Amino acid sequence: MKILVINCGSSSAKFQLFDIDTGDVLAKGNAERIGIDGKLTYKPAGKDEFVSTEPMPDHKVAVKMILDALVDKDHGVIADVSEIAAVGHRVLHGGEYYSDSVIVDDDVKAVIKKCFPLGPLHNPANLIGIEACESVLPAGTPQVAVFDTAFHMTMPPKAYTYALPYELSEKYSIRRYGFHGTSHRYVSKRVAEFLGRDYNSIKTITCHLGNGSSFAAVKNGKCVDTSMGLTPLAGICMGTRTGDIDPAIVPFLMKNENLTPDEMDTLLNKKSGVQGLSGVSSDFRDLEKAKNEGNERAALALEMFAYQGKKIIGSYAAAMEGVDVIVFTAGIGENTDKMRKAMCEGLEFMGVEFDDAANDGLRGKEAIISKPSSKVTVCVIPTNEELAIAQETEALVRK
Ligand code: ADP
Question: To test the ligand 1 pocket, which listed residue (186, 335, 383) has its Cβ within 8 A of the most ligand atoms?
Fold first, then answer.
């Protein structure tokens, strides 16, 4: 079965075509600068990359160009678009409505629209992508929405409610939603499989550490807490985002620096985090280099990231009344042995015996990085959000 996965942004559409029976990516690419001029980068497996700069006035044209590339007689990978059994769409926000992926119908589209205020940058683009596929693919090709928030919908009210006036939270649907759900679900399931444990009877802490970073507490196969909140700004400090800070800092800075709400939002999301702290970069490779050259603020940024991560791990162990597995994933989690070690350092009191020999130099591979005698198993599991979306799409279509 062939599944197309699409991640639509306001001016781009990233895509991968999977043969889900083998897990192989048949082709992938990105349609960029939609509505500006247009650039399609297309890479069929085992063949050269192909770039087209035909105009792309809208997403419908972009999707049509992607499909044309997939069936092209020279660099195509399928004979006809009817071979695409379904399309899985990454959708940022499903609000409180969906705890799982769903086949798109009018109700689903209405919900995606209703959640525009919660995901103003992503949800409108996600819906445009769905509608573009509907209009270009053969009628009846299932479109599946895979929500970034869905996995976290099993959290109990004590984990997702903010201590604001209750009526205001209700009025604006303010609560913790959490993000990276597709990754947390995939990695927590995969690690259970990898360790030969029963997903439904272990306590796992998933640490997704990338440009955006979030943690999830997964107890017996259900997410019970996560570090991002109403928006992806909450939790640990990130590349350019503050993470959790004293909320009173917001009005303090707005008053004293004369900032508008939009300017404050930009400061919190784009000018802060390890970038703002170090003044060097949001990229952890640059920070490591700067630290080695004696840059104290870069060293502080790295130290803070590790410290905040460790505090979340400790708090989730308490929240679940124990932890069996800690798993690291995404750009930093998969590639940075030093950060994994720093986050686990000193956790012997809760049963973590870290294995330096297994961890040192390990990159992008599934592995156990705790000692065999460790009560808590620490692992690295590379995330694969596109494959997870394809698998969830396939499962729904087969149903
Ligand atoms: P995104 O959230 O954009 O999907 P990724 O999961 O790709 O991000 O993570 C990107 C981050 O991972 C980069 O900013 C970088 O800090 C870090 N990273 C990627 N590769 C390495 C590496 N080899 N060593 C250290 N850090 C890395």
Answer: 335
pLDDT tens-place string over residues 250-271 = 999 999 999 999 999 999 999 9
Measured between alpha carbons, how far is 92 from 107 in angstroms, rounded to an integer? 17
Question: What tens digit of pLDDT does each residue of 264-306 get?
Answer: 999 999 999 999 999 999 999 999 999 999 999 999 999 999 9
Contact present, 209 and 332 (Cβ < 8 Å) = yes
Distance 63 CA to ligand 1 centre (A): 28
Laid out side by side, the sheet with 24-32 consists of 50-52, 39-44, 24-32, 13-19, 2-8, 84-91, 143-147, 102-103
Extract the tokens encoding 109: 């589209």
Does the CB atom of residue 287 touch ligand 1 within 6 A? no
Task: Return the active site residues.
Answer: 148
For residue range 124-136, what is the model confidence (pLDDT) as tens digits?
Answer: 999 999 999 999 9
**Closest residue (by CA) to atom 23 of ligand 1?**
335
Measured from the CB, is residue 333 less than 6 Å from ligand 1? no
